[in-house]
Design a protein that fits this description.
single chain, 321 residues, alpha/beta, Rossmann fold, Dihydrodipicolinate Reductase, domain 2, 2 domains, eight-stranded mixed beta sheet, six-stranded parallel beta sheet, 14 strands, globular, binds nicotinamide-adenine-dinucleotide
Length: 321
């Protein structure tokens, strides 16, 4: 007997939500029933292209769907995802999971008490270059990441740490099996009202070290993650989905291998993993608890930046954290 398709809706079809909607519409395992957005033209435009219902108030669709993606601004994740979970709907919420750890805890508790899936949209986990890196280098002891984005003149409710660096904080946390023991961070504002460039040095209790840099005011986009282990090194170009691996061979020789993954679709893979988890199949979603962990570390990086800026002389570049 064919498995029934899951009925899906996307709440918030702005820049990113419209891509979620397109992935559900293209999925063989889901039926995109509706899109909801406070902006009626946005909802109508996406619905007309994908052949589903458009609504302004997301509450209208909750009785008729099994799963939702919540892709509204971060400060509304708690309210919108919470209402969906209360209505018995499985939730894939975009990253960061929420604005505060307390809000994340509330969503995790709701999902758990109702036996629902709560997945978080840390889409880089599904980047094939990262997937291959994790397989190639199971236990790195030094990790470096660089995430540079061109300036987008959009109103953003969050700084570069919650906007961009949190992707790499999540990747690092997924690679290291130890607790964070120290965070040193620095950052400053350039073009927006909050931190636009940030760097963080993170130490773990087992001795692993990670250095992360993120900017949203760069000339050229870069998304790179490098990891060093006892026997090898792997460099993932997350932007171009390529992996370069170097391993120590016999004697003093080093073997190098390069792989490219040109046709991968990380968002499609993320949504497929979410659907599989809802169906009770074995699947690698980023759980609410993992989303909370990445958020808590990002907030710690923000706190360290704010402390440093407060210590710096008034004429130093920086301003508000
Ligand atoms: N995973 C990633 O790489 C990634 C990339 C970009 C954005 N994001 C995250 O996705 C979320 C959305 O970002 P965006 O850039 O698409 O924002 P956006 O502002 O372009 O879109 C958000 C949409 O949500 C709608 N909205 C707001 N409140 C609503 C409500 N209560 N009900 C229905 N619709 C509502 C707005 O009208 C808007 O159309 C943010 O949390 C952001 O951090 C993640």
């Amino acid at each position: 007997m064919p498995v029934k398709k899951l009925r899906a809706a996307v709440i918030g079809v702005g820049r990113l939500g419209r891509h979620h909607a397109a992935k559900y519409a293209a999925s063989p395992d889901a039926e995109l029933v509706a899109v909801a957005d406070l902006s009626e033209p946005s909802a109508r435009d996406v619905a007309a292209r994908l052949g589903c219902r458009a609504v302004r108030d997301f509450h209208e669709v909750l009785g008729g769907v099994d799963v939702v993606s919540v892709v509204v601004p971060t400060e509304r994740h708690r309210e919108v995802a919470g209402a969906c979970l209360e209505a018995g709907v499985h939730v894939l919420v975009e990253k960061p999971i929420t604005r505060t750890v307390e809000e994340a805890d509330a969503l995790i508790a709701l999902a758990s008490s109702r036996g629902l899936q709560l997945a978080v949209g840390h889409v880089e986990r599904y980047n094939p270059a990262f997937v291959a890196m994790r397989q190639a280098l199971a236990r790195p002891f030094f990790i470096e990441s660089e995430r540079l984005a061109e300036f987008q003149p959009r109103v953003t409710d969050i700084d570069v740490v919650l906007d961009l660096m949190i992707h790499d904080l999540d990747l690092v946390l997924s690679l290291v099996r130890s607790e964070v023991s120290q965070v040193i961070a620095c950052g400053f504002q350039v073009l927006t009202r909050s931190i636009d460039i940030a760097t963080a040095h993170i130490e773990f209790a087992d001795g692993v070290v990670a250095n992360l840099s993120a900017s949203r005011v760069s000339q050229t986009p870069v998304r790179k993650l490098r990891a060093f282990g006892r026997d090898g090194y792997a460099s993932a170009d997350l932007q171009d989905a390529r992996l370069r691996e170097a391993h120590r061979a016999d004697g003093a020789a080093i073997t190098v291998e390069e792989r490219a993954f040109p046709h991968a679709d990380a968002l499609q893979a993320e949504i497929a993993a979410f659907i599989a988890a809802v169906r009770g199949q074995s699947s690698e979603i980023v759980s609410g608890a993992e989303g909370r962990r990445a958020l808590a570390l990002a907030l710690e990086v923000e706190r360290r930046i704010a402390e440093r800026l407060a210590r710096l002389a008034p004429e130093a570049p920086g301003g508000r954290a």
